[in-house]
Every structure is written in structure tokens, then in C-alpha cells.
Amino acid sequence: MDNSYPKSLVDHYLKVSAKLKKIEKAMFKRFGPNVSEVMDDYARLAIKFEEAGIFQYAAMCQLGVAKCENYLQNSMSECQALLKAARLFLRAHEEMESLLLRSNRHEYRETALHCFTQAIDKSPDDSVIKAAIIREMSPLQPHYEGTSSFNSPAHRIYELELATEQSVMNRDFLTALQQLDDIVDNIYERKKQNLYQEVLSKSEIYRVLLLVALTLPPARQTPAHIKLIEFYTQLAEFQQEDDICPSPSQSPCKNVPQLYASWRPGLFLTQSQKYALAEIVLAWHLSKPRDLRVALQEFRHNFSSLNDTQRYLINCILEKVDTKC
Question: For residues 194 and 267, what is the distance between their CA atoms, to the nearest angstrom?
């Protein structure tokens, strides 16, 4: 066995790092170590460290890969290595957090943020990867000033969904409702509703619950909101779904924008979801807080597909209802 072989992964890492330093100091590159070989060593070490659960060293190896890619002028590969390093530093941070150590100064989190920022700088401004990195980094730095000129409807809808959930958690229900309206408008304007059935289903549940939570006067409701409320009110009165249409005297159907010409409440919900929402809307419409509380509790209990934010919204409405019971 070769005695020069490193006795541990850390020894191997230090030897490879020494080679990288020689590359950095070499005045003429041909006299220094081969950059590609050093990069391959770092990449192999990163895998071994990650498999061993030593994420901070795996991240440092990826930083070594990024430096080598920089010497080779491979900007996109450098960006990918920086992203891997950022994610590994985040895993190291999460591991430290789980240990509840007093000595945890969040240095891995800060290093991850620095790696994300470097990756953004290396990405073309109009690329999807820059937009994706900014989004991935947003939990670490929500108010990051950098932007991307990349514009994608799918990205826009996803960002609106995240913003809606954040608004609900902040109890800013009016903003959340406006964001959901933007999502529905965006999808129907592009006539892509069949591609976003799950999003539209989730958005409709949100919108009904938010309208119940807000109790807006008719003057502040949009035609779509009025149409939505009337649909579920009439559905609760056992009218046939195909026959339901807002009455001309109560709903400005003629003023409904063209994008809603093909929009129909309940189109992407199951029958059980529609009738459960109808019970909620009817109890709210008739100002029966006890019935509303029961309907909300049953809706929360019966549908496991509800996400945490929707359940939180239901709990907020229940808090409000309990004060009236």
C-alpha cells in the first residue's frame, strides 16, 4: 500500500487545496498543477464528504470546483458549482440548527447566502437560472435587490402563489385575494386553464374562504367575486349546477370581462368540495355563525388535500366566528 495516500478525507482535502494554491501562485500556468485534475479531485472529494454527512467540507470542495471552473473560464459550470456549495452549506446550517448549539453563529447560512449571490453574479441577466436562483435564495434574503429580466408566465404564477401564502400568513387577506385574482386572470388571458387545473382549484378554495373572511361590501367586490358567491349560494339551495347564473338585478353579468366568458366557478373542484364550500357560503350569507363554524370545521377535517396555509386561513375565520357565537 502506498504510504503517501492520505489517511483521511480531510488530509486529502488539504492536499488538493495545496495544489490549488500552487495554481493560484504559479506565474506561468504550465509550471503549476493541472487545473482539470485538481477540479476532478475536488469533485470526487465533495461526493465522499456528502456521503459521510460532512456537508461543510463537501461545500468547500464545491467552492474549489468553482475556482477551477473560473480558471478554465467556464462561467456556467462555475455557477453550478457555487449553487451546489450554497445548498451544502444550507444543509450544514440545518444540521447545526437541529443540534440547538449555543455556539451556532449561523456562519454556514451566511456563507450559503454569499455563494448564492456569487452564482447570481455569474448568471446571464435574461436567463431562467438567474430567476431560479433569486427565488431559491429568497427565504434567506427576502428583500434581495437584484432582479432578472427573464419573464415567464409560469414563474409569475408560482411567485404569486408564494406571495399569496405569505399574505395569508400575515393576515393580509385583501392583498392575498388580489394576488389570487391576478393568478386566475393570468391563466384565463392566456387560455391555459387546462394546464393549471390544480392551481385554479386551489385558488378557488382560497378565494371563497377569503371572501368569507373579509366580508366585503358589494361595492368593493369584483364581478368575479359576486359571481363566485352567487354560484355557491344557489348551489346550496339545491339548484342544478348547469342552471345557475347570477341574476341580472344583483350581478353585473354584462360587465364581466371577456376573460371570464369561459370561466365558471367550481369547474376544477370535486362535487364534495363544491357542496362543502356551498354550505360555508350559505351559512355566512345568512349570518348563521354556529352553522358557519360547523361547516368550516367539517371542511377542514374532511379534505386532507388542504395545505397548511388554507388550514391556517380556516382557523383565522373560526377565531372571528367564535367571537360572534
Answer: 11
Amino acid at 159: E
The pLDDT assigned to 84 comes to 95
Over residues 179-227, the pLDDT tens digits come to 999 999 989 988 888 889 999 999 999 999 999 999 999 889 999 999 9
Calpha distance 134→146 (Å, rounded) = 8
Instruction: Please tell me whether residue 188 adopts helix, strand or coil conformation.
Output: helix
Residue 54 to residues 47, 49, 91, 104, 203, Cα–Cα distance (Å): 10, 5, 10, 16, 42
Give the three cell numbers for residue 280. 360555508
Asked whether the whole model's pTM tops 0.70, one would answer no
> DSSP label at 255?
G
Question: To 10 degrees, what angle do helices 308-322 and 289-302 make?
Answer: 160
CA distance 146 to 62: 24
Instruction: Please state, as a whole number, how many other Cβ atoms lie within 10 Å of the Cβ of residue 64.
Output: 24
Please tell me the distance from the alpha carbon of residue 181 to that of residue 204, in angstroms, as a whole number.
10
Nearest in space to 48 (alpha carbons), one of 77, 13, 86, 83: 13
63 in Cβ contact with 38 (< 8 Å): no
| Amino acid type, 76 | M
Residues, the chain, total?
325
Reduce the DSSP state of residue 101 to 3 states and report it: coil
Alpha-carbon distance 4 to 229, whole Å?
77
Query: Nearest 5°: phi and psi at 237?
Result: -90, 15
Q: How far apart are CA 282 and CA 248, in angstroms?
A: 20
Residues near 280 by Cβ (< 8 Å), separated by ≥ 6? Answer: 208, 209, 212, 232, 292, 295, 296, 299
Residue 97 grid coordinates: 440548527
